[in-house]
Predict the 3D structure of the following.
Amino acid sequence: MSRAVLEVTLVGFGAIGRSIFQRLGGSAHTRIAHIVVSPARVAALQAELGSAVQVSDQVPASSRLVLECAGHSALTQHVVPALAQGVECAVLSVGALSAAGLPEQLAQAAEQGQTQVHLLSGAIGGIDAIAAARLGGLTDVTYTGRKPPSGWRGTPAEQVVNLDTLTQPAVILQASAREAARLYPKNANVAATVSLAGLGLDATQVRLIADPGVTENIHEIMARGAFGEMHLTLRGQPLADNPKTSALTVLSALRFLHNRSAAVTL
């Protein structure tokens, strides 16, 4: 018996959304049926993509699965209402959950709609191990984000160190994941994902480092607990269309969609 095609509503069509859409173009099991963008973009994007997909500024009532890749404001504007209406949702903008009350808002909406919201791992690995270890008792989780000095331009790091003259690695922030997300919102997704899988936003420690000796964005996780100890280092390659975004972010969304239609999942 053939498996039904999984139809997805994609919220957002920037570099991540476009990459997901293009990569699913040849899939026999999953297709993007709807794309949600701002009202000003609807007509132009519909003309670009043609009749094979419906473009709108709201999540259609017929949606069964929403994949969000639009940024933090999309969670309150689109994901929360969709959950409350019983639409299952997957979220890439996990950093938004550092905002006070938003995790509870998502949970309440999902309970109201008797559905689920999935927080995708995005640019980082090891989230399954941290979430599993939490069940046995975690004692420490630390996330370290390391970038070249140019990667911190336009952030509060410019008030901490002189990014132009650095010759040695410099810690620009050491704080809780919640504080890191508040001060560095564009770098919040990985720290928030690690913290929500483990000890939470306030108990997870974050170190952000400007390092003139590296050219990549480097993520490091250390976790300790009853399970033992874990150290993970990930050197992420950027998305070709958007160097500020990890290619693994797109791949984590594709893996989630694959698992929704596959006979065997990992």
Summary: Residues 180 and 206 are 7 Å apart (CA to CA). Residues 127-242 form a domain with the Dihydrodipicolinate Reductase; domain 2 fold (CATH 3.30.360.10).
